[in-house]
Amino acid sequence: MYFIDNQRRIFMKQHVIEDVNIMPQLDRACGLDMHKDKIVGFISCKDGSNQEFREFGTYTCELKEIRDWLQENDIHHCLMESTGIYWMSLYAILTEACIEVIVANPVHIKQMPKRKTDRKDAKWLCTLLLHGLVRPSFMPDSTQRIIRDYCRNRLFYTWQLNRIRNRLLKILESNNIKLRSVISSIHTLSAMDMIRLLAKGVTDQEQLLNCARGRVKAKKEQLIKALDGTLQTYHHTQLQMLLEDYDHVQKQVDFLDKSITEIISEHYAQAFECLDSISGIGVKSAEIIISEAGKDMSRFPTADHFTAWCGIAPGNNESAGKRKNTAIKKGNSYLRVAIVGAAWAAVRMKDSYWHALFDKLRKRMKAQKAIVAVARRLLKVVYKTLETLTVYQEKGIAHFVDLQAKAALYYAAKLSWPQTDNI
Protein backbone atom coordinates (compact mmCIF):
# COMPACT_ATOMS: atom_id res chain seq x y z
CA MET A 1 0.00 0.00 0.00
CA TYR A 2 2.86 2.35 0.80
CA PHE A 3 4.39 1.62 -2.60
CA ILE A 4 1.12 2.48 -4.38
CA ASP A 5 0.74 5.76 -2.45
CA ASN A 6 4.36 6.66 -3.19
CA GLN A 7 3.84 6.02 -6.90
CA ARG A 8 0.72 8.21 -6.79
CA ARG A 9 2.72 11.05 -5.21
CA ILE A 10 5.42 10.78 -7.89
CA PHE A 11 2.79 10.86 -10.66
CA MET A 12 1.04 13.91 -9.19
CA LYS A 13 4.37 15.74 -8.82
CA GLN A 14 5.26 15.05 -12.45
CA HIS A 15 1.77 16.13 -13.56
CA VAL A 16 2.06 19.44 -11.70
CA ILE A 17 5.50 20.12 -13.18
CA GLU A 18 4.12 19.55 -16.70
CA ASP A 19 1.19 21.90 -16.11
CA VAL A 20 3.36 24.77 -14.80
CA ASN A 21 4.85 26.40 -17.89
CA ILE A 22 6.76 29.54 -16.89
CA MET A 23 8.62 31.51 -19.53
CA PRO A 24 12.11 32.84 -18.78
CA GLN A 25 12.31 36.35 -17.33
CA LEU A 26 13.67 39.13 -19.54
CA ASP A 27 15.82 42.19 -18.93
CA ARG A 28 13.98 44.37 -21.45
CA ALA A 29 10.67 43.98 -23.28
CA CYS A 30 7.75 45.76 -24.92
CA GLY A 31 3.98 45.54 -24.54
CA LEU A 32 1.71 46.48 -27.45
CA ASP A 33 -1.97 47.27 -26.89
CA MET A 34 -3.79 46.66 -30.19
CA HIS A 35 -6.83 48.48 -31.55
CA LYS A 36 -8.39 48.99 -34.96
CA ASP A 37 -6.95 52.49 -35.49
CA LYS A 38 -4.39 52.87 -32.71
CA ILE A 39 -1.52 50.91 -31.15
CA VAL A 40 0.01 51.87 -27.81
CA GLY A 41 3.52 50.62 -27.06
CA PHE A 42 5.38 50.56 -23.75
CA ILE A 43 9.06 49.71 -23.32
CA SER A 44 10.71 49.08 -19.96
CA CYS A 45 13.64 47.32 -18.31
CA LYS A 46 13.09 44.78 -15.56
CA ASP A 47 14.24 47.23 -12.86
CA GLY A 48 11.78 49.86 -14.13
CA SER A 49 14.34 52.06 -15.87
CA ASN A 50 14.35 53.39 -19.46
CA GLN A 51 10.57 53.44 -19.75
CA GLU A 52 8.93 54.91 -22.84
CA PHE A 53 5.38 55.22 -24.17
CA ARG A 54 4.58 55.66 -27.86
CA GLU A 55 1.34 55.75 -29.84
CA PHE A 56 1.11 54.67 -33.46
CA GLY A 57 -1.50 54.36 -36.18
CA THR A 58 -2.33 51.14 -37.96
CA TYR A 59 -1.41 51.87 -41.58
CA THR A 60 1.39 49.73 -42.98
CA CYS A 61 3.91 52.58 -42.94
CA GLU A 62 3.08 53.17 -39.25
CA LEU A 63 3.47 49.46 -38.46
CA LYS A 64 6.97 49.69 -39.94
CA GLU A 65 7.61 52.66 -37.61
CA ILE A 66 6.85 50.32 -34.68
CA ARG A 67 9.42 47.87 -36.02
CA ASP A 68 12.03 50.63 -36.35
CA TRP A 69 11.22 51.92 -32.86
CA LEU A 70 11.77 48.47 -31.34
CA GLN A 71 15.02 47.99 -33.21
CA GLU A 72 16.32 51.40 -32.13
CA ASN A 73 15.66 50.47 -28.48
CA ASP A 74 17.24 47.02 -28.87
CA ILE A 75 13.99 45.17 -28.13
CA HIS A 76 13.96 41.50 -29.11
CA HIS A 77 10.73 40.41 -27.35
CA CYS A 78 7.27 41.94 -27.37
CA LEU A 79 3.79 40.87 -26.26
CA MET A 80 0.43 41.65 -27.84
CA GLU A 81 -3.12 40.41 -27.48
CA SER A 82 -4.82 38.41 -30.21
CA THR A 83 -7.42 41.14 -30.76
CA GLY A 84 -9.58 40.12 -33.72
CA ILE A 85 -7.49 40.15 -36.89
CA TYR A 86 -5.68 43.44 -36.23
CA TRP A 87 -2.53 41.78 -34.86
CA MET A 88 -1.76 39.71 -37.95
CA SER A 89 -0.06 42.34 -40.14
CA LEU A 90 2.07 43.67 -37.29
CA TYR A 91 3.02 40.11 -36.33
CA ALA A 92 4.24 39.42 -39.87
CA ILE A 93 6.29 42.64 -40.03
CA LEU A 94 7.93 42.11 -36.63
CA THR A 95 8.75 38.44 -37.16
CA GLU A 96 10.41 39.29 -40.48
CA ALA A 97 12.68 41.65 -38.49
CA CYS A 98 13.69 38.72 -36.21
CA ILE A 99 11.74 40.12 -33.24
CA GLU A 100 10.16 37.40 -31.11
CA VAL A 101 6.47 38.22 -30.88
CA ILE A 102 4.27 36.51 -28.30
CA VAL A 103 0.55 36.58 -29.07
CA ALA A 104 -1.58 35.84 -26.01
CA ASN A 105 -5.25 35.16 -25.46
CA PRO A 106 -6.86 38.29 -23.91
CA VAL A 107 -8.70 36.08 -21.41
CA HIS A 108 -5.38 34.93 -19.92
CA ILE A 109 -3.90 38.40 -19.38
CA LYS A 110 -6.79 40.50 -18.12
CA GLN A 111 -5.88 42.93 -15.37
CA MET A 112 -7.98 44.36 -12.56
CA PRO A 113 -11.38 45.70 -13.68
CA LYS A 114 -12.20 49.45 -13.64
CA ARG A 115 -8.52 50.29 -14.01
CA LYS A 116 -8.34 50.03 -17.76
CA THR A 117 -6.75 52.51 -20.15
CA ASP A 118 -4.69 51.94 -23.28
CA ARG A 119 -1.49 53.02 -21.55
CA LYS A 120 -2.14 50.84 -18.51
CA ASP A 121 -2.89 47.87 -20.78
CA ALA A 122 0.42 48.31 -22.63
CA LYS A 123 2.30 48.64 -19.35
CA TRP A 124 0.60 45.55 -17.95
CA LEU A 125 1.52 43.52 -21.04
CA CYS A 126 5.14 44.61 -20.72
CA THR A 127 5.16 43.68 -17.01
CA LEU A 128 3.80 40.20 -17.70
CA LEU A 129 6.37 39.57 -20.40
CA LEU A 130 9.29 40.80 -18.28
CA HIS A 131 8.41 38.37 -15.50
CA GLY A 132 7.58 35.43 -17.78
CA LEU A 133 3.93 35.28 -16.70
CA VAL A 134 2.54 34.73 -20.20
CA ARG A 135 0.98 31.73 -21.87
CA PRO A 136 1.76 32.13 -25.60
CA SER A 137 -0.85 31.20 -28.16
CA PHE A 138 -0.26 28.56 -30.81
CA MET A 139 1.16 30.20 -33.94
CA PRO A 140 1.29 28.17 -37.21
CA ASP A 141 4.13 28.47 -39.69
CA SER A 142 3.72 30.10 -43.11
CA THR A 143 2.82 26.88 -44.97
CA GLN A 144 0.22 25.93 -42.40
CA ARG A 145 -1.28 29.43 -42.49
CA ILE A 146 -1.81 29.07 -46.24
CA ILE A 147 -3.55 25.70 -46.04
CA ARG A 148 -5.55 26.90 -43.02
CA ASP A 149 -6.89 29.88 -44.98
CA TYR A 150 -7.70 27.62 -47.94
CA CYS A 151 -9.59 25.11 -45.77
CA ARG A 152 -11.57 27.82 -43.98
CA ASN A 153 -12.45 29.54 -47.27
CA ARG A 154 -13.59 26.20 -48.66
CA LEU A 155 -15.84 25.78 -45.64
CA PHE A 156 -17.40 29.22 -46.22
CA TYR A 157 -18.00 28.44 -49.90
CA THR A 158 -19.55 25.10 -48.92
CA TRP A 159 -22.00 26.91 -46.65
CA GLN A 160 -22.84 29.21 -49.55
CA LEU A 161 -23.49 26.19 -51.79
CA ASN A 162 -25.91 24.81 -49.21
CA ARG A 163 -27.76 28.14 -49.06
CA ILE A 164 -28.12 28.19 -52.86
CA ARG A 165 -29.40 24.59 -52.87
CA ASN A 166 -31.95 25.42 -50.19
CA ARG A 167 -33.12 28.42 -52.20
CA LEU A 168 -33.48 26.28 -55.33
CA LEU A 169 -35.48 23.72 -53.37
CA LYS A 170 -37.73 26.44 -51.95
CA ILE A 171 -38.61 27.76 -55.41
CA LEU A 172 -39.32 24.25 -56.70
CA GLU A 173 -41.44 23.22 -53.72
CA SER A 174 -43.41 26.48 -53.77
CA ASN A 175 -44.40 25.59 -57.35
CA ASN A 176 -45.14 21.95 -56.49
CA ILE A 177 -42.09 20.48 -58.21
CA LYS A 178 -41.61 17.44 -55.93
CA LEU A 179 -38.13 16.34 -56.98
CA ARG A 180 -37.05 15.98 -53.35
CA SER A 181 -39.81 13.40 -52.79
CA VAL A 182 -38.37 11.14 -55.50
CA ILE A 183 -34.62 11.87 -55.50
CA SER A 184 -32.62 11.72 -52.26
CA SER A 185 -30.93 15.09 -52.80
CA ILE A 186 -31.23 17.88 -55.34
CA HIS A 187 -27.47 18.24 -55.73
CA THR A 188 -27.21 14.86 -57.46
CA LEU A 189 -26.36 14.92 -61.18
CA SER A 190 -29.85 13.76 -62.17
CA ALA A 191 -31.64 16.43 -60.13
CA MET A 192 -29.31 19.27 -61.19
CA ASP A 193 -29.71 18.42 -64.90
CA MET A 194 -33.50 18.45 -64.53
CA ILE A 195 -33.39 21.78 -62.68
CA ARG A 196 -31.26 23.30 -65.45
CA LEU A 197 -33.84 22.23 -68.05
CA LEU A 198 -36.70 23.57 -65.93
CA ALA A 199 -34.86 26.90 -65.60
CA LYS A 200 -34.80 27.13 -69.41
CA GLY A 201 -38.56 26.56 -69.55
CA VAL A 202 -38.40 22.97 -70.84
CA THR A 203 -41.60 21.07 -70.07
CA ASP A 204 -41.16 18.06 -72.37
CA GLN A 205 -41.33 14.94 -70.18
CA GLU A 206 -39.01 12.87 -72.39
CA GLN A 207 -36.23 15.45 -72.19
CA LEU A 208 -36.58 15.68 -68.43
CA LEU A 209 -36.68 11.89 -67.94
CA ASN A 210 -33.56 11.43 -70.07
CA CYS A 211 -31.63 13.21 -67.29
CA ALA A 212 -32.29 10.32 -64.90
CA ARG A 213 -29.26 8.24 -63.91
CA GLY A 214 -28.77 5.06 -61.90
CA ARG A 215 -31.63 4.05 -59.62
CA VAL A 216 -33.66 7.12 -60.58
CA LYS A 217 -34.42 5.51 -63.96
CA ALA A 218 -36.69 3.03 -62.20
CA LYS A 219 -38.85 5.88 -60.84
CA LYS A 220 -40.10 7.33 -64.13
CA GLU A 221 -43.79 7.28 -63.16
CA GLN A 222 -43.07 9.14 -59.93
CA LEU A 223 -40.82 11.62 -61.77
CA ILE A 224 -43.57 12.46 -64.25
CA LYS A 225 -45.85 13.41 -61.36
CA ALA A 226 -43.10 15.21 -59.46
CA LEU A 227 -42.08 17.39 -62.43
CA ASP A 228 -45.61 18.59 -63.14
CA GLY A 229 -45.60 21.98 -61.41
CA THR A 230 -46.71 25.60 -61.78
CA LEU A 231 -43.45 27.35 -62.71
CA GLN A 232 -43.87 30.71 -64.41
CA THR A 233 -41.50 32.84 -66.47
CA TYR A 234 -40.14 34.86 -63.56
CA HIS A 235 -39.44 31.60 -61.71
CA HIS A 236 -37.28 30.50 -64.65
CA THR A 237 -35.28 33.72 -64.29
CA GLN A 238 -34.77 33.15 -60.57
CA LEU A 239 -33.61 29.58 -61.15
CA GLN A 240 -31.14 30.68 -63.83
CA MET A 241 -29.65 33.32 -61.51
CA LEU A 242 -29.25 30.80 -58.69
CA LEU A 243 -27.69 28.24 -61.03
CA GLU A 244 -25.14 30.82 -62.20
CA ASP A 245 -24.25 31.50 -58.56
CA TYR A 246 -24.06 27.76 -57.90
CA ASP A 247 -21.66 27.15 -60.80
CA HIS A 248 -19.42 30.03 -59.75
CA VAL A 249 -19.19 28.89 -56.12
CA GLN A 250 -18.62 25.27 -57.16
CA LYS A 251 -15.75 26.43 -59.37
CA GLN A 252 -14.17 28.18 -56.38
CA VAL A 253 -14.54 25.05 -54.24
CA ASP A 254 -12.88 22.93 -56.94
CA PHE A 255 -9.96 25.37 -57.13
CA LEU A 256 -9.50 25.28 -53.35
CA ASP A 257 -9.68 21.47 -53.33
CA LYS A 258 -6.91 21.33 -55.92
CA SER A 259 -4.73 23.86 -54.06
CA ILE A 260 -5.15 22.03 -50.73
CA THR A 261 -4.29 18.69 -52.33
CA GLU A 262 -1.09 20.13 -53.80
CA ILE A 263 0.07 21.52 -50.44
CA ILE A 264 -0.78 18.27 -48.65
CA SER A 265 1.13 16.13 -51.15
CA GLU A 266 4.17 18.44 -50.98
CA HIS A 267 4.46 19.08 -47.23
CA TYR A 268 2.15 16.74 -45.28
CA ALA A 269 1.95 13.51 -47.30
CA GLN A 270 2.98 11.12 -44.51
CA ALA A 271 0.87 12.81 -41.84
CA PHE A 272 -2.14 12.81 -44.17
CA GLU A 273 -1.74 9.08 -44.90
CA CYS A 274 -1.61 8.30 -41.17
CA LEU A 275 -4.69 10.40 -40.41
CA ASP A 276 -6.65 8.91 -43.28
CA SER A 277 -6.17 5.46 -41.73
CA ILE A 278 -8.07 6.41 -38.53
CA SER A 279 -11.66 5.22 -38.32
CA GLY A 280 -14.15 7.97 -39.20
CA ILE A 281 -11.55 10.41 -40.56
CA GLY A 282 -11.87 10.97 -44.29
CA VAL A 283 -10.00 13.13 -46.76
CA LYS A 284 -11.54 16.48 -45.83
CA SER A 285 -11.42 15.78 -42.08
CA ALA A 286 -7.72 14.93 -42.35
CA GLU A 287 -7.08 18.12 -44.33
CA ILE A 288 -8.83 20.23 -41.68
CA ILE A 289 -6.90 18.57 -38.84
CA ILE A 290 -3.58 19.24 -40.58
CA SER A 291 -4.54 22.83 -41.43
CA GLU A 292 -5.57 23.65 -37.86
CA ALA A 293 -3.13 21.61 -35.74
CA GLY A 294 -0.23 20.94 -38.11
CA LYS A 295 1.89 17.82 -38.00
CA ASP A 296 4.25 18.78 -35.15
CA MET A 297 2.66 17.60 -31.89
CA SER A 298 5.64 18.76 -29.80
CA ARG A 299 3.79 22.07 -29.44
CA PHE A 300 1.41 20.29 -27.05
CA PRO A 301 2.97 18.67 -23.94
CA THR A 302 0.39 15.88 -23.77
CA ALA A 303 -2.69 14.59 -25.58
CA ASP A 304 -4.85 16.19 -22.86
CA HIS A 305 -3.37 19.60 -23.69
CA PHE A 306 -4.23 18.98 -27.33
CA THR A 307 -7.86 18.10 -26.58
CA ALA A 308 -8.15 21.16 -24.32
CA TRP A 309 -6.79 23.38 -27.11
CA CYS A 310 -9.39 21.92 -29.46
CA GLY A 311 -12.14 22.66 -26.93
CA ILE A 312 -13.53 19.19 -26.25
CA ALA A 313 -11.92 18.59 -22.86
CA PRO A 314 -14.19 19.01 -19.82
CA GLY A 315 -13.44 21.98 -17.62
CA ASN A 316 -12.74 21.83 -13.87
CA ASN A 317 -15.26 23.14 -11.36
CA GLU A 318 -14.31 21.90 -7.91
CA SER A 319 -14.95 23.58 -4.57
CA ALA A 320 -14.70 22.19 -1.02
CA GLY A 321 -13.87 18.77 -2.40
CA LYS A 322 -17.03 18.62 -4.54
CA ARG A 323 -16.88 18.38 -8.31
CA LYS A 324 -19.68 20.03 -10.26
CA ASN A 325 -20.83 19.60 -13.83
CA THR A 326 -19.04 21.74 -16.40
CA ALA A 327 -19.43 22.36 -20.10
CA ILE A 328 -16.61 21.91 -22.58
CA LYS A 329 -14.14 24.76 -22.97
CA LYS A 330 -13.88 27.18 -25.83
CA GLY A 331 -11.25 26.20 -28.34
CA ASN A 332 -10.55 25.81 -32.03
CA SER A 333 -14.08 25.62 -33.42
CA TYR A 334 -13.00 24.45 -36.90
CA LEU A 335 -11.08 21.48 -35.52
CA ARG A 336 -13.85 20.70 -33.03
CA VAL A 337 -16.51 20.52 -35.76
CA ALA A 338 -14.28 18.28 -37.88
CA ILE A 339 -13.42 15.84 -35.10
CA VAL A 340 -17.02 15.60 -33.85
CA GLY A 341 -18.14 14.85 -37.41
CA ALA A 342 -15.43 12.20 -37.65
CA ALA A 343 -16.62 10.73 -34.34
CA TRP A 344 -20.16 10.38 -35.70
CA ALA A 345 -18.76 8.56 -38.73
CA ALA A 346 -16.62 6.28 -36.51
CA VAL A 347 -19.49 5.22 -34.23
CA ARG A 348 -21.57 4.24 -37.25
CA MET A 349 -18.97 1.62 -38.23
CA LYS A 350 -20.35 -1.70 -36.97
CA ASP A 351 -18.09 -4.02 -34.94
CA SER A 352 -15.65 -1.17 -34.34
CA TYR A 353 -14.14 -0.05 -31.04
CA TRP A 354 -15.82 3.36 -31.37
CA HIS A 355 -19.26 1.83 -31.95
CA ALA A 356 -18.94 -0.23 -28.76
CA LEU A 357 -17.64 2.76 -26.78
CA PHE A 358 -20.53 4.96 -27.92
CA ASP A 359 -23.09 2.29 -27.00
CA LYS A 360 -21.63 2.05 -23.49
CA LEU A 361 -21.59 5.82 -22.96
CA ARG A 362 -25.07 6.22 -24.44
CA LYS A 363 -26.55 4.16 -21.60
CA ARG A 364 -25.72 6.81 -18.99
CA MET A 365 -25.72 10.13 -20.91
CA LYS A 366 -27.30 11.89 -23.86
CA ALA A 367 -26.07 11.17 -27.36
CA GLN A 368 -24.63 14.69 -27.78
CA LYS A 369 -22.58 14.35 -24.63
CA ALA A 370 -21.50 10.81 -25.49
CA ILE A 371 -20.27 11.82 -28.95
CA VAL A 372 -18.11 14.58 -27.44
CA ALA A 373 -16.53 11.98 -25.14
CA VAL A 374 -15.87 9.74 -28.15
CA ALA A 375 -14.45 12.72 -30.08
CA ARG A 376 -12.06 13.46 -27.23
CA ARG A 377 -10.69 9.92 -27.30
CA LEU A 378 -10.52 10.02 -31.09
CA LEU A 379 -8.51 13.25 -30.91
CA LYS A 380 -6.08 11.54 -28.52
CA VAL A 381 -5.60 8.87 -31.20
CA VAL A 382 -4.94 11.68 -33.70
CA TYR A 383 -2.32 13.12 -31.33
CA LYS A 384 -0.58 9.76 -30.96
CA THR A 385 -0.75 9.06 -34.68
CA LEU A 386 0.80 12.41 -35.63
CA GLU A 387 3.37 12.18 -32.83
CA THR A 388 4.66 8.79 -33.98
CA LEU A 389 3.61 9.01 -37.67
CA THR A 390 2.28 5.46 -37.59
CA VAL A 391 -0.72 4.04 -39.45
CA TYR A 392 -3.75 3.41 -37.23
CA GLN A 393 -4.98 -0.17 -36.85
CA GLU A 394 -8.63 -0.65 -35.96
CA LYS A 395 -8.75 -3.30 -33.19
CA GLY A 396 -12.50 -3.82 -33.28
CA ILE A 397 -15.06 -4.55 -30.61
CA ALA A 398 -12.98 -7.39 -29.16
CA HIS A 399 -10.39 -4.88 -27.97
CA PHE A 400 -13.09 -2.87 -26.20
CA VAL A 401 -14.45 -5.97 -24.44
CA ASP A 402 -10.93 -6.91 -23.35
CA LEU A 403 -10.31 -3.45 -21.88
CA GLN A 404 -13.61 -3.57 -19.99
CA ALA A 405 -12.73 -6.95 -18.50
CA LYS A 406 -9.31 -5.70 -17.35
CA ALA A 407 -10.89 -2.59 -15.81
CA ALA A 408 -13.42 -4.73 -13.91
CA LEU A 409 -10.63 -6.94 -12.49
CA TYR A 410 -8.63 -3.87 -11.45
CA TYR A 411 -11.49 -2.23 -9.56
CA ALA A 412 -12.46 -5.55 -7.94
CA ALA A 413 -8.89 -5.95 -6.68
CA LYS A 414 -8.79 -2.32 -5.52
CA LEU A 415 -11.93 -2.75 -3.41
CA SER A 416 -10.38 -5.79 -1.73
CA TRP A 417 -7.27 -3.86 -0.55
CA PRO A 418 -7.11 -3.14 3.19
CA GLN A 419 -7.84 0.48 4.09
CA THR A 420 -5.12 2.44 5.87
CA ASP A 421 -4.56 5.99 7.05
CA ASN A 422 -0.80 5.90 6.43
CA ILE A 423 0.26 8.49 3.86
Automatic annotation (TrEMBL):
Q: Which GO terms describe its biological process?
A: DNA transposition
Q: Which GO terms of the molecular function aspect are on file?
A: DNA binding; transposase activity
InterPro entries listed in its UniProt record: Transp_IS110-like_N, Transpos_IS110, Transposase_20
Tell me one Pfam family matched here. Transposase_20
User: Superkingdom of this entry's organism?
Assistant: Bacteria
The Transposase IS110-like N-terminal domain covers 30-174
Q: Which residues form the Transposase IS116/IS110/IS902 C-terminal domain?
A: 273-356
Q: NCBIfam families from the entry?
A: transpos_IS110
Q: What is this protein called?
A: IS110 family transposase
Q: Which organism is it from?
A: Mucilaginibacter psychrotolerans
The top of its lineage is: Bacteria, Pseudomonadati, Bacteroidota, Sphingobacteriia, Sphingobacteriales
